[in-house]
Amino acid sequence: MTKVLSVASECVPLVKTGGLADVVGALPLALAPLGVEMKVLLPGYPAVTKAVKGKKLADLGSGQRLLAAEYAGLSLYILDAPKLFDRAGSIYLGPDGHDWPDNLERFAALSQAAVAIAAGKDKGWVPDVVHCHDWQAGLVPYYLKKAGSPAKTVMTVHNIAFQGIAPYDKLGALGLDAADFTADGLEYFGNVSTLKAGLVYSDKISTVSPTYALELMTPEFGMGMDGLLRHRRDDLIGILNGVDTEVWSPATDEHIKPYTTPAGKRANKAALRKLFKLKKADGPLCVVVSRLTEQKGLDLLLEALPALTSRGGQLVVLGSGDPALEHAFLKASGDPNVAVRIGYDEPLSHRIIAGGDAILVPSRFEPCGLTQLYGLAYGTLPVVALTGGLADTVIDANPAGLAKPAATGLVFHPVSAEALANTLTRLCDLYADAKLWTKLQRNAMSHSVDWTRSAERYAALYGDLTV
Ligand code: ADP
To answer: Does residue 25 line the site of ligand 1, with CB under 6 A?
Structure first.
């Protein structure tokens, strides 16, 4: 059994703001049959300490305790540190909508707790590998190296846009050595970056799709880390995220009218139209479930929308985020063929994805993306930008793709309103051919989106580190 400690700031089913939480929660279960015992270290946010009764393993000083617990099939370690984590509201943002001012210290403490576990605080369970997720766990490889720990480390980049930046004068508070504040160490354009620390000091680096791994080595996508990643290219691997098929399977989904064939979508589509008071229409019912941010390219959708609605297409959007985008979508919902729900609502997201004909993901960059995978499983054809994990998971319905028969959706490039508008037109043309559309749906639904293959790749990666 290889023992792996996964260190993360979110984990389903306890606390989630994005796809990271899905990955962290799904991996231990997917890895168990492959001889990997994975435990997850999480901060003791109220959502965690309320749901889980932990057993105390150790006092870590400064009012911090390490707890152990079992929950929903997961083995958890919890850093119980009320001063850092017992706060109402968002796990990352204060009531003013800005990052908590001590975010770097909060997650440095989490990273130190990982070092304590690696040093044997839980007698009998010492990890062979510590798997660090995003900037919140970026200091773990550094701390472990400094402590002379034999544990190997994997640093996973879920989104390089989040880098854990702190000014130089936080060096001491974060337990970092000034001698390591160099261009090939902790320094990132005059500041400290905990993500960069992870990329420099880890044994292996992974990211969540093969295409994003390649993109990260380019100036366009690397956000200042591309040179470092090119330097470490031999240690960098892209492994696609899978989907938790216990939660996302049209045959067993408790939030919808379950189905196993494209025809079964009809009742869900009718229910969705009813819910959002949309009239019957001739064109495809398109859906979006997303954070509303610049990354997701949904401003382009607002521009391209007439290409859909002029052809009898409709749009349902569920999302929240940037107030300007929320406002713009609400304004667009003045059109009777556009319905918008601002908020975060998981049951509704299932009903929307089951009821839609197509799911739109026009992201400017997308490390992996999950909603296009849900779309495949549910026969809700993904319309995606040619980037990152979107490019790796959707096969375009061009003549070659249709001939194979491999096509599972529509892929567009460049990421512009014009290209998206052209693709929405193409979507309407395909939708008008009912036989072809059903064939595409069948292709999509037979595409495997579960964790099996990717879990094998992670197991192999840990295996390489522990031979
Ligand atoms: P990211 O992590 O960049 O937000 P992903 O596609 O990897 O993007 O993961 C987003 C996850 O969050 C998906 O599981 C998606 O269904 C969910 N999600 C996003 N917005 C909402 C929302 N408004 N309501 C419910 N679920 C949402």
So the answer is: no
Q: For residues 232 and 154, what is the distance between their CA atoms, to the nearest angstrom?
A: 13
Mutation choice for ligand 1 from 17, 157, 288, 289, CB with most ligand atoms inside 8 A: 289
DSSP-derived 3-state class of residue 6? strand
117-172 pLDDT per residue, tens: 999 999 989 999 999 999 999 999 999 999 999 999 999 999 999 999 999 999 99
- Gap between the Cα atoms of 340 and 331, Å rounded: 9
Q: What does the pLDDT read at residue 18? A: 85
| Per-residue confidence (pLDDT) for residue 405, from 0 to 100 | 81
Cα(172) to centroid(ligand 1), Å: 36
Amino acid at 25: G
CA of 343, closest atom in ligand 1: 23
Task: Kindly tell me if the per-residue pLDDT of 19 is higher than 90.
Answer: no
Separation in Å, CA 277 to CA 11, 280, 339, 340? 35, 10, 8, 11
Share of the chain above pLDDT 70, in %: 100
DSSP string, 209-268: -HHHHHHHTSHHHHTT-HHHHHHTGGGEEE------TTTS-TTT-TTS---SSGGGHHHH
Rounded-to-integer distance, Cα 12 and Cα 23, Å: 8
The model scores a pTM over 0.70: yes
Instruction: Give the per-residue pLDDT at 124.
Output: 87
Distance of alpha carbon 364 from alpha carbon 412, whole angstroms: 11
Assess whether the C-beta atom of 21 lies below 6 angstroms from ligand 1: no
Q: What is the rounded (10 degree) CA torsion for 237, 203, 126, 22?
A: -30
CA 17 / ligand 1 centre spacing (Å): 8
